[in-house]
Amino acid sequence: MLDIRRLYMLKTVAARGSITAAAQSLELSAGAVSQQLAALRHDVGVDLLRPDGRTVALTEAGRVLLEHADRILAAMEEAESAVAAVKGTVGATATLAALPSTVARIVAPALAALGSDHPQLAVTCLVTDQAQLRELALGTVDVVLGQRYHHLPETAPRGVQVSPLLDDPLLVVTAADGSDERPRALRELATHDLVVPPGTTDCGQAILRACHQAGFTPAARYVTADIAAQLALARAGLATALVPQTAIDPGTPGIRTAPIEDHPILRLLFAATRHTEATDPTTLAVVAALRAAARRDRTTHLPPV
Asked: CA quadruple 150, 212, 179, 176: dihedral positive or negative?
């Protein structure tokens, strides 16, 4: 009979691209992972992995086995969630992956509410902007608070369920100068020095696309994905920034914010879970707390008009 732990190791190696990377994520030695994969190869009687430059790749037999392993692992997780749903109680642990720009105004309030409503639940929060949905699909996190800009296609890994939380508009951020906070036309920024994220990021692509629609190519004087750096440059009067509303503390001194009226740039914030945990009380509690925090934030800090 195939060992479920070895099947999960095969899945992890396939996703990470190497035994070393898989071992690090599994908190095992590379030798231990290699031994377990050798045992799995002995169980099935055929090679499952092959060298591929500095990485490894699945053989045809490995791909076939992984397809079945995905279904087996999903069925096991679904069974665990079904039992948890019957129990109806929130568990003791959960892992949330969230974007840095969502921590202050959504994640922190959500975790505080969870601590009050479910004191037995310890939530580990991984603040990262890298490969969140892949980690969700691998089972290393339970809930992802992620983003998708509206110009991008809706894509999610197989087995992942996405629940929208809110539309988060980018605001025009400049140094506080006593002027009003009227909505700004994006085309007004054609003569501004801008601080923007790299063009390889989703936000950078969204800004570039919107500026082109407004009839100009942005003058990117500063390029950084660090929102704190963007706000600092705007506060100093060195550049104009375009920053998601949720990433801006309403009490931040020295800046002025204004909505974009002609070519709004929106990112969708969403909570993602695995389909197999759709009824798990612990996962549902985390998602509900994120949704409530997002709703409170939006009603408390409406964009200026």
From this structure: positive
One-letter amino acid of 16: R
Dihedral angle sign, alpha carbons of residues 304, 149, 130, 234: negative
In DSSP terms, which residues pair with 164 in a beta bridge? Answer: 270
Neighbours of 297 (CB within 10 A): 22
Q: What is the pLDDT of residues 85-121, one digit of tens each?
A: 777 788 889 999 999 999 999 999 999 999 999 999 9
What gap in Å lies between CA 173 and CA 195, rounded to an integer?
10
- Virtual torsion, Cα 290, 294, 295, 301, nearest 10 deg: 150
Q: Is 279 helix (H, G, I), strand (E, B) or coil?
A: coil
Task: Note the pTM of the prediction, 2 decimals.
Answer: 0.79
Cα separation of 133 and 156, whole Å? 7
Pure H helices in the chain:
4-16, 19-26, 30-44, 60-87, 108-117, 132-138, 202-213, 227-235, 281-300
Chain centroid, CA 123 distance in Å: 16
| The pLDDT of residue 301 is above 70 | no
Taking every pair of Cα atoms in the chain, the longest distance, rounded to a whole number of angstroms, is 75
Strands 266-274 and 143-149: antiparallel
CA distance 250 to 231: 12
The H or E element containing residue 124 is: strand 122-127
DSSP code of residue 151: T
Q: Are strands 160-175 and 240-244 parallel, antiparallel or unpaired?
A: antiparallel
Query: In whole angstroms, what is the distance from residue 170 CA to residue 162 CA?
Result: 22
Q: How many other CB atoms are found less than 10 A from the CB of residue 68?
A: 11
User: Burial letters for 91-107: b for 16+ Cβ neighbours within 10 Å, e otherwise?
Assistant: beebbbbbbebbbebbb
Question: Cα torsion for 82, 84, 90, 91, to the nearest 10°?
Answer: -120
